[in-house]
Amino acid sequence: MMLVNQYKPRSIEDFKSNNKAAKKAYDFVKDYEGQTKKAILISGPPGTGKTELAYVLAKDLQLELLELNASDIRTADAIERILGNASRQRSLFYKGKLILVDDIDAISGVQDRGCIKALIDVLERSKYPFVITAIDPEVDFLDSLRKKCVLVKFDKLSIEELFVLLKKVCDEQAVSYSETTLRKLARYSQGDARAALNDLQSFIINGTLDIEGFEPRLYKEELEEMLLTLFKGGSFANSLTALNNLDVPLYPFGGRSLVIWGDMHIGVYWIEENVNKEFFDLGLGKAYELISLSDLFYGRIIKRQYWRYLVYSTALLAALSTLPKEKRGVVTYTGPSRSPKQNFRLWSLVNRKRTSISGKLSTFTHCSTKRALQTVLPYVRFMSKHDIDFSYDLGLEQDESDWLST
Description:
Number of strands: 7
Distance between the termini: 29 Å
Low-confidence stretches: 255-262, 339-348
Shape: globular
Number of helices: 18
Structural class: alpha/beta
Order of helices and strands: HHEHEHEHEHEHHHEEHHHHHHHHH
């Protein structure tokens, strides 16, 4: 059994970080007949337990659960045909019903016009409570729906809560681990319990947790903190410390192969991408000059192996914190928009190989090619590098098998 299913929440008490929100939802469903609103809208990041809460509520309150994804009800007719009848008919085996509409913010586009209005019409006539989930409930087309719902917000899980969960799983599954490794997995999962459990299961090999070669899903949080210190802190010393303490490389010092596998999580790429959001006119010119000088020393390190120049290269970037700039409001930092993978002539061949393997994976795992590429292929490649052969199961050609294991 997948760990994500084995260790999903079973009761309201299992929602540690979001216990107050979970109890609010429980009280709403339990006392539905006394509520003025007909639905509860639960919002929050992926992997925080929004959907699982509906299962817990149905189980605890002995309700029949009808679950639908937004993709199942993309037209007003489908909403009326499926939800209209279900929201009025009695349950044969339970005290009542709980209707779950998952990922409502996935409804968008011309083809979905009229869906939200039709859903509101069904809500107002329903005999049973609705639980509606969304990652982003603030999108404009949900304005009218929000007014009809009790709003509940789930926050991402804390690193400590995820660490405790992962430690419990390892202890119960007799997995050998180090607490440092577990904390890394907890941190890199970005508050997503599903991601943390999937990562954990992927890196358990012969009863031992081994994350060697693991590239974290996102270093975004750490890089954003560095940018805040660099651009907002106004302290050269603090900025220099933040740059030196990065867990990700400040510059791409890794070796190069036939195809240059660049890493998007490089400190200087993020600085280059976001510097024009903080500086203007002359200030922006001075900022680019510092970045250019820093890059000059980086080039000398690469060409001549003069590693003492790393001090100068880092200090020049830290000097960005000393430049005057106009006061601005909240700035949203983003990752690099340009790819650091430079060998574009060979990249199309690699892309073709990835797509081919993903197609075979999708057939074997009964999922879409896109899902296989994004969520399954990284784990298969990691296992291949640890001498697990998928050639026979997937029907791989020799060059595809070689690519997986290198």
